[in-house]
Structure formats: C-alpha cells, structure tokens
Amino acid sequence: MAHQVDWKQEWGEPVQDLRSLCIRMPGIVRFETKENRKEGYQEIQAVFRNIYDQTVWLDPAEADSAEELSWYLLALSRTIPEIDEEVYDHRMNLVRQYRSTLRRVLPFYASFSAEAQQRVQESIRSACREKILIAEKYTAYC
Amino acid sequence: MKFHVIFLTARCLTIELLEEGIVRTQAYSIYLNGEKLRVSDRIVESIYDLLPDTEYTLAVGRGACAPEPVIIRTPKEFVTLNVRDFGAAGDGIREDTAAIQAAILCCPKEGRVLVPAGVYRIGALFLRSDLRLELAAGAVLSAYTDREKFPILPGLITAWDEEHEYNLASWEGNPLDSFASIITGVGVKNVTIYGQGTIEGNGSYENWWEGEGREKTGGAFRPRTIFLNRCENVTVQGIRIQNSPSWTLHPYFSNRTRWIDLDLVNPKISPNTDGMDPESVDGLEVVGVHFSLGDDCIAVKSGKYYMGSTYKVPSQNIEIRQCHMQFGHGSVTLGSEIGAGVRHLHCHDCIFEGTDRGLRIKTRRGRGRDSIIEDIVFENIEMDGVLTPFVLNSYYWCCDPDGKSEYVRCKDPLPVDERTPEVRDLRFRNITAHNCHAAAAFLYGLPEAPVQEIEFSNVSIDFARHPTAEYPAMMADVEPCTRMGLMIRNCRRLILNHVSVEGAEEPVYDFDGIGELIKD
Prior knowledge:
The structure holds 2 protein chains of 2 kinds. By secondary structure, chain A is an all-alpha fold. Chain A has 6 helices and no strands. Chain A is globular. Chain B has 3 domains: about 1-75, Immunoglobulin-like; about 80-240, Pectate Lyase C-like; about 295-520, 3 Solenoid (Pectate Lyase C-like), CATH 2.160.20.
C-alpha cells in the first residue's frame, strides 16, 4: 500500500525535499486516478501550486537551486501522464508550471551538474512524448 | 394563411406557417405555380425538386379561403458534380469515401455536389467552404463502423511558441482526441447540406455503443455524425440522421448555424446519442426538427473548466422553435459542460413528449465563475408524459471523475470562489405539462450562489393516473418519487403567476431558501 503516504503533511510548506516529491507523487496521482475517484486531485494541485510559488524564488544560476529545479521538473513530467485527461484543467495547470519552469532553467542548463542535466533531459523527453513540448526544438537535450 | 420562407436553395425551400399552432395544424394545401402540390399538416414543411434561377409562385391555403401567393426566385447554380461521375458506386458494398470527398473538394462556388439515390459506404467526409451538398431522395450515406476507417483528430496541438494551441477535437467539454465524424467541418464557411436523403451512422451495441470502454477505444473518442469546428454560416436541412455513433450534431465554436426540418432518430436505449450539442456557439437556429433519441434531445454546452476558463466563449443567441422532442433524457438541456455559460436562449412553440425532463439544467461546483446561465426563456410549450418538466440540478454528479466528491454534493454553503457557477434568470411562460410522473418542478440552486430569479407564468401541470417513481434529478441524496409538487431551493426571487399543479402530494409548494416570493 504505497499510497498511504501522508503527502499533504509531508509536502506542506516549506519545500524540503523535491527528490522525494518526484519519487512519490506520480504514484499518488496514479492511485487517485485509478482507485480514489480523483478526490485528492484538488489537494495535489495545491501541493504543486505551493511548490511552484516557492520555486520562483530559486535562482537557477546557483547550484543548490539548480538541483531543486531539476527535481521539480522531473516530478512534474512524471506526474502529468498520470492525471486523468478528463480532468483536463488539472493536467494543464501542471503543464503550464512545467513549461514556465523549463523556460527559466534552460538558459542555465550548461552550468548544471551532470546529474541535474540528466534530470532535465529526462523531463524533456517525457514532455515531448506527451506532446506538451515540440520535440524538434529540444533535440540538443534529448 | 400566413407563412414565410425560412430556407431557400436552388433546389428546395422550407416554409414555416405563422400563427397556426405548434408543430402540426389542420390539413392545408400547398400550391406551386397555381397547381396543388400536396396536402400537409406540418407547420414547417419543405418543397423539393425546384430548378435553379427560376421564379415560382407559392401559396398555402385551406378550404374556401383563396391562398395569397408569394413569388420567390431560386438562387443560381453554376454546376452539378454528381458523385457517380467521380467514381462513387452507391451499391452499398464498395467504399465511396474517396469519390465523394473528391467531388466535395472539387466543387466551385455556387456549385452543387449531388449524391443521387443509392447506398454509399463511407468513412469520414470533410466539408469545404461554399459547398452545397445535396442528399437526394433515396440517397443513404451509410457509415462504416470500423475505427480504422476514421482518422483521428487530435484534441489539442501545441503551437511552436508552446504558449498557444490548436484545438481540433473535443469530447464532453475537454479538448481530447476524437475520431473524425462522419461529416466533419473545420473552419469552413457558407455550407449547405440539404435534401431528402439519410445519413445512417450504423451505431449499434455490436460496435460504437458496445461495452464499458466504448467511449475511447483505438486511441480516440467516438465520432459524432456531424461535427462543425469553428465554422460559420452552415445550414443543414431536410435530411434524416439515424443510429449516430455518439452525439448526432455537434456545432463547436461555430456561429450562425441553422438546423431545419431534420429527423434525428436513435434508439431509446442507445448511449450518449444526443440529438444536438451546440457548444460555445453564437447564433443557432433549430426549426421544425423531430428528435427521437436515447439521450438529451438538445444539450447546450460551453466546455468544462479548462475550455470555459481559457476561451471564455459562451453559447448564446439560440432559438429553438416548432420542434417535436420525443423520449431521451432531457428535451432541452443546459450542461453539464457549461464552463463559459449559456445566455439568451429562447425555446418556444415546441412539443416535449415522453422525455425524462423538459428543461434540464445540469451544473455543479467546479464549472467556474464564467459558467453563468442567464436569459433562458421557455414559452408556448406542450409537454406530455414528461417525468419532471422543470429541473435545475446544481449538484450534477455524472460524467466527471470527481462528480460524487463531497465538494460537489455538499448542500451547505461553501465559499464562493473562481470555481462557483451562477444561474441568473429562468422564465417559463404559457406551458402545459400533462401526465407527469416524478415532480412538477425540481429546481435546486446552490446555497452560496442562489438563482437570481425564476418566473412561472401561466403554467399548468398535472400527473399521470398511475405515475412511475423516478429520480427527478441525478444528484446525491435524491430518491425516486412520484407526485412531488414544485420543489424549489435557493432562489433570490421566485415569481408564480397563474400556476396550477394538479394531483401532487402535499406539500405542493415546497420552498426553502427563497429570498422573495411573488405570487398572484
């Protein structure tokens, strides 16, 4: 029962560990989609929105921030495919967060650590598969 | 007898009698160039086999009254493109999609694509601007039911700038991948589809209607029979459409469309086979259409939350008249996907027969603050055998993944926010509803956003001798009932003017949360 994580408490303010968000959130959303009638969707949205509002203060030029942002991009890109497409506004909210964050991150991509670069690349590949990015614009990252 | 010509092409016309009643009247004669053409009792009647650029004298009359003629001139026609000349077989065996599509694409302005008598097996056909497509008497466009015969239209295509998008398809209020419809128009203008022919969707429980996964199989949602995406000035007249794969007619972000003298027939048990689903449209006229269906006859929509809040295009300026709506869930439904609202809808001079509900509004928390319903007028309506004539359901639980969540079903007031919908004014005038079953009216607004005004004037409702217990609305905590009177909740101003309800159980008037009651 991996879905019994109390993510609301764990992912309340402040954001402490985006790596854990990345690992857990896709599974939580999958559970909500398939088993829980999407009743937790609103709160999942709130979690991502809360994190997004905080990431705008992160400076991608700084190494620690780059790490956080790369995990956040990966979390979004792994979560988006798990959202039921019939709750389209929720999906598009995350898509907007992803695109907006990626635009901020890419100018600093070259200065990222190799691990952070890999996370960004994986997120881009997933976003291209989901057709929320135009693949031919990102061949350098794929 | 007074009449006017409401539709005229080079080959046919449609008249509408004035001040003669609803849908049908006493038998009368139609005269063309002084000769009696035929006898009819229909308020909306069509005449075919006219010639282009020709003057006609048209009259209608009854008994000894000398009919007053009207002179009309049919429009010019440049050429006829007979689909048989393009290789269509019309034998009901060989596929004719490419031949008919070629004729459509080759048709010049003021030209006509003629589909003569015969059975034409087709997949998806795409319209082009300035097209006149005639389905002659005896012509049947018989659609395949194999999914591979239908291309997929992507719901949303991301633009190069990754900020904009191209919305091509839709399913129940979201921009989702769908199969192209039997007739699809994307961005076309000035199109007329007319005639006495038939579009046979061939929907059945062996194909499109089958099983739990029927909505989306093969990577896309079910096709409609006619789908118009961002089209303008399109008229569909005369034809019969039957056994639609899903919704029958789906004008989508399309303006100035007219639907005249159609016959829309789907089995009563067929799933999601609405008659017409105008979605985010401006200027829609539905005249003389007969509906006999498995779901809502007309369901006006404007998208779920994403489409409603992103595009903010309501459905508005809609007139429905002289229609006969049989069976199905709702005669005229608003919702449930009304994220951008519905306004200025006038439904008059119609018959509702044997439907579950007459007017049916389906909304819910989460539709959003752009979801405003206003200026909805129903008048001169005759209902018979309708389970519940008037329904406003602000807690509609169906068709959304979170429809049964506490947020949607809660009857206590919740904070008004960007997801709260609003209903402003509903007016019901000169309406009789005989042989009802469940409730005379079931109008339930949200406590945090009460309906601004509801008016009943000259409304008479009675119940069947042996009514069947049914749910008056699809919402939580509502049980099947019979002989419920006027049940109204959460309305700022309620006007009751000459309202009679016969055969209801006490309390006949069951009101709560009414700000002001004005009663004659």
